[in-house]
């Protein structure tokens, strides 16, 4: 990994009495932020903990000196430094005078997402969960660069607070060839998300800090249009999203369902249960537990369903260190009083797991030039978008007898014996998918063409 932090550009904006101490500090490259509060000693916060930088107390003149050397503060009380990723946030008193500054160090770290490169290549939407300050913005900045430069995707970044690409009108080099759309006001983020899709034809949209219902709705709309999403939100684990009503729709939403007596008895549950409402906008969730240990949910739909049923669920933990091989562990979690608890390790390997492939029920190489598809338990719009994107001639039909093949979800196809019997009589092949995703449908179509 290599790091570009432009720390000198931040230090030179601070009062002179801090320059020497910061420039000669043994852990200079591990500074997270510098805090200047009126009447208090200046403080630096490192990964190992806080440390005072001087015996001198911060004065009004010190704060004024610094604020005049950074950009103008926005309505969110944030400012930046031209052509860097640093963020300066201010605290104001009742008279709206600045009496405190938090100078957060922004770093572009190249190579940090090699541990999840296979997930990016799957073209599925990815949501990153983590506490504030854990490095989510740094991760999606590097994701944007890799997708734009190395995978040659059309990438648009929705940069609401200018943390991803910096304060300048010219984006920081850390995002590579990715394009950046700035947001005038935080409350307009959802509008810019939709505008990006409608006006600029992106293949990937990058969003930092999804937090409101309107932003969640915009993310779902973008996902329905077949655009890959990479976003972040606050939370420790997948359970936090389930219990957060405004954000739950990112993973399909949760609803109460009342079962019949027979169905409740068959399932061995109560009559009123929680179920997922729809398929998730994000197919993959990454929990940033620590900087070198991430928990991966490669099938969010399955993880959510298992959680709601109270069953064990399997997550993948990827651990990495500089100059060492990446370790991938499969870990089983059980539900205990509403919390996820690790119970057992099953696997430890030093290479990537394969992306799930669509499973076929019959093997067929289509000879016809036009596909006549009978979709079962799948969105017609989703299939249309995938096939149009791939340039295939096709027709969707509601009549099985006219179909040249049937595509559906495996769990639903298993239960429909009549459909399978009719297809067998007419010698119509059935292809099943484990999950609803653009990537799965594309892999299936490539196989049967």
TrEMBL record:
In this chain the AAA+ ATPase domain maps to 122-261
User: Any idea which UniProt keywords this protein has?
Assistant: ATP-binding, Chloroplast, Nucleotide-binding, Plastid
The protein's matches in SUPFAM superfamilies, at most eight in alphabetical order, are given as: P-loop containing nucleoside triphosphate hydrolases
> Where exactly are the transmembrane stretches of this chain?
none
The record's InterPro entries line, in alphabetical order, gives: AAA+_ATPase (IPR003593), P-loop_NTPase (IPR027417), PTPase_dom (IPR058670), Spore_III_AA_AAA+_ATPase (IPR045735)
Recall the GO molecular function terms of this protein's record. Answer: ATP binding
Q: Which PANTHER family match?
A: KINASE-RELATED, P-LOOP CONTAINING NUCLEOSIDE TRIPHOSPHATE HYDROLASES SUPERFAMILY PROTEIN
> Mind telling me what this protein is named?
AAA+ ATPase domain-containing protein
Q: Which organism is it from?
A: Asterionella formosa
Name the gene that codes for it: ycf45
């Amino acid at each position: 990994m290599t790091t570009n932090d432009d720390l000198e550009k931040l230090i030179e904006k601070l009062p002179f009495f801090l320059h020497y101490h910061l420039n000669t500090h043994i852990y200079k490259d591990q500074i997270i932020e510098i805090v200047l509060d009126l009447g208090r000693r200046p403080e630096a916060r490192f990964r190992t903990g806080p440390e005072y930088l001087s015996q001198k107390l911060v004065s009004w003149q010190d704060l004024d000196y610094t604020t005049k050397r950074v950009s103008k503060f926005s309505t969110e009380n944030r400012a930046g430094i031209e052509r860097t990723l640093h963020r300066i946030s201010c605290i104001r008193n009742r008279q709206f005078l600045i009496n405190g500054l938090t100078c957060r160090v922004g770093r572009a770290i190249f190579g940090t997402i090699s541990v999840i490169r296979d997930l990016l290549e799957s073209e599925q939407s990815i949501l990153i969960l983590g506490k504030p300050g854990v490095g989510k913005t740094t991760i999606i900045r590097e994701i944007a660069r890799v997708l734009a430069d190395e995978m040659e995707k059309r990438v648009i970044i929705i940069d609401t607070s200018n943390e991803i690409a910096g304060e300048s009108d010219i984006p920081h080099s850390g995002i590579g060839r990715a394009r950046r759309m700035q947001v005038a006001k935080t409350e307009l983020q959802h509008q810019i998300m939709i505008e990006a899709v409608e006006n600029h034809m992106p293949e990937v949209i990058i969003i930092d800090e999804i937090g409101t219902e309107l932003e969640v709705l915009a993310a779902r709309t973008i996902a329905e249009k077949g655009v890959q999403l990479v976003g972040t939100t606050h939370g420790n684990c997948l359970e936090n999203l389930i219990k957060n009503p405004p954000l739950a729709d990112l993973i399909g939403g949760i609803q109460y369902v009342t079962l019949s007596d027979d169905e409740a008895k068959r399932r061995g549950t109560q009559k009123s249960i929680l179920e997922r409402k729809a398929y998730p906008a994000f197919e993959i969730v990454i929990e940033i537990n620590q900087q070198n240990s991430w928990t991966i949910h490669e099938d969010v739909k399955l993880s959510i369903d298992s959680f709601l049923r109270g069953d064990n669920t399997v997550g993948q933990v990827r651990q990495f260190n500089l100059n060492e091989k990446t370790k991938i562990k499969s870990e089983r979690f059980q539900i205990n009083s509403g919390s996820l608890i690790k119970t057992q390790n099953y696997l430890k390997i030093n290479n990537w797991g394969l992306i799930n492939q669509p499973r076929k029920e019959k093997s067929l190489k289509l000879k016809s030039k036009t596909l006549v598809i009978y979709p079962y338990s799948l969105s017609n719009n989703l299939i249309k978008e995938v096939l149009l994107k791939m340039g295939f001639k096709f027709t969707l039909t509601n009549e099985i007898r006219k179909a040249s093949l049937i595509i559906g979800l495996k769990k639903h196809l298993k239960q429909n014996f009549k459909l399978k019997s009719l297809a067998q009589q007419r010698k119509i092949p059935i292809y099943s998918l484990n999950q609803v995703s653009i990537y799965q449908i594309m892999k299936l179509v490539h196989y049967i063409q």
